[in-house]
Give the backbone structure.
Amino acid sequence: MFGWEFPPHILGGLGTASYGLTKGMAEQGDLELTFVIPKPHGDEDQSFLKIMGACNIPVVWKENSWEHVNYRIGKIMHPDEYFWLRNGIKYDYNRIYTNDLGCVDFSGRYPDNLIEEISNYEAVASVLAHQMDFDIIHSHDWLTYPAGVFAKHISGKPLVIHVHATDFDRSRGQVNPTVYSIEKRGMDVADHIITVSDLTRKTVIEKYHQDPRKVTTVHNAVEPLPDADTFTKTERKDKVVTFLGRITMQKGPEYFVEAAYKVLQKTEGVRFVMAGSGDMMPAMIELAAKRGIADKFHFTGFLKGRQVHEMLAESDVYIMPSVSEPFGISPLEAMQVGTPSIISKQSGCAEILTHAIKTDYWDIDEMADAIYAIVKYPAMYKSLRNLGREEVNNIKWYDAGLKVRTIYDEVLNR
Amino acid sequence: MKNICFYFQIHQPIRLKKYRFFEIGQDHYYYDDFQTEEKIRALAEQSYLPANRIIAEMIRSSNGKFKCAFSISGIALEQLEQYAPEVIDSFRELAKTGSIEFLAEPYAHSLSSVFDTDEFEMQVKMHADKMENLFGKRPTVFRNAELTYSDEIGEAVAKMGFKAILIEEAKHIMGWKSPNFVYAHSHLSKLKLLVRNLKLSEDISLRFSHPSWHDYPLTAEKFISWIASAPAEEKIFNVWMGYESLGMVQRPESGIFDFLKAIPYHAMEKEIGFTLPSEAVKKQEVAGSLFVPFPISWWGHEKELSPWTGNDLQHEALDKLYSVSERVRMCTDKPLLHDWLMLQTTDHFRFMSHKDAFGTHYETAYEAFMNYMNVLADFLERVNAQYPSTIDNEELNELLKTINHQEKEIETLENELKKLKARKAKVV
């Protein structure tokens, strides 16, 4: 598998989904998984799969002593493996800037020269495709499609690509032509396309002109939260309604502010929290001030790790008014700690959730009404809390893994 | 002689309009009349009117031998009066034939029998008054909303003077017993129970036009032959369904009306008659008594009340609603009293069911709950505005008595005063 992120060092939902899916698939017992990411930190959980760092795989032949290699990357990869992989270099990548080991220094993030990193990742894939033995190639998200495509061309093995998002989701329709062409090529070459929701499946079919027979939805799941009970809710006078995520156009933060304004006009004892950061944060602070609700509307800035679950658990309502969300894992996380969720119908997770309130992202009246109902009518809160928690606890990665397996079996037997 | 007891029920949900929380206290009209009108018109034209015509014809051509019973909820009567008065006229015509019986039920098609006995009695009386008013005869047989029944409800109904109640064939109550007998209440032997024959009823209402059903197509001949071949001691066959089954659920093109029309002919051929519930309980021997400690209904396989009262949402809505019933009954504001009835229909709560929200127009149970609760919040505010909520019900009742009797009191006192004055004048 080619991926871009793997916990614990993650920047978005992609890493979480990659982890959950691979862990769920490993439970099948007869799958051997190798997961390639640009830059591992060495503290990844490798109990159920093998993590390979693209930054440790040579693409240019350089002579080095065993000791030197051991000194440089020994704690992440065995030197013998380095020398063995080096035999897979079949093309001249001297044009790429490499270090003393002939490896590329990947940032593993989303830098400005992302396109260059993507193509370097492709070079790494060629080495792996020549040297390694595998049955199937699985590429997660557009950053890794070129790597998957190249590996397929070299090895002749089937390629499955996993669409966690498309550029149409990220840009509200203003697609970047370069990104689009990378995505389109990956989809064209793939033997099968997995999408995380029917919403994304529709985009893939309609905007990328793919054959519907080639596209299957496998909804994401959520990792069980072993310490779910340690997150408690403090008794307080005011109810807390929370938006949590990147404050960007895609997430629809302005609809949250407008809904808050509607609720506050009529209701005492409710506070609103916008947690996270993003390019629209200043505009949102201004909007809250303009509506005259700044005393009841709070910003927390970026939250990470445990803080996220703490914030969710302390809230009475979690709201995700995303304009376009391929899946959206955070409402499931909120429901795990027993917080009722309001999600937009334009979110993929709406397809699998019953005990969450679904509204159109633009329908601030409906959203305000739902917030009001949850904070004012105890049965609403109680039902969503109890039934919602029960529901998400039954959404398992193992089942998602089985669906992926069916797809594997199908492309292998074709 | 074997008899078939046909009974049809008419009730339609009241559709609440989209009512947001910011309308609480601003807007006191809760209903989506457009949708209701459309629904009622469609039902009248496709089901009620054609079915009434067929039944009139059946009565005529069988010389009054064909008989059937109806119950129409108070809410449905209001809807018909408003949007399809010709249906009421058509029922009046049917009533004149003498082959029709109308049954009593709680006016608002409510669960008041379970939650508030006083309210229940008030509504049953209200419904009986209305029936008498419209069709000239006071009902003597009772059927509850959703065929809800328990021993306790039976007691209340017997107290009101009814002779019989219609109940559902619930397996956990009937056990090995056949529904084709007349039964009695667990300890009030005077109160008779008629039990719906589940199979025969659903053969018509649900399965009639299902090509995959092994008895498809169902002909009148076949239907009657099933009854004819039943053991000789089974005397009464209760075939009950919603009236919309004729023409709406089972479309005219399925042949449902022709099926119905052919029934009397084939029945008479096999010497099977027709009966009304009130006649049946007079004529037939009681086969035994039925113990129903917990309420049953005609829903699903379980035959209990969980689709209306099974989850937290429904509990809260019902609790809030019935918490003010005593107070509402002290009010005299007519629109308020009418809304009180409208908010009690069982459908509102059915729509809040997670497992079976039959007939809902909401996307989810939560949406149904939110909308209802917003409406109820406004209603409760209006109730509170009637009398200060700081006074409790008992005290208020006393005060109201004093106020209402004030005039009489003044009159008697004045009379007394006059008398005394007159006497004084004489003396002087």
Notes: Chain A touches chain B through 24 residues (CB under 8 Å). The first helix of chain A runs from residue 13 to 26. Chain A has two domains: 13-221+399-412, 228-393.
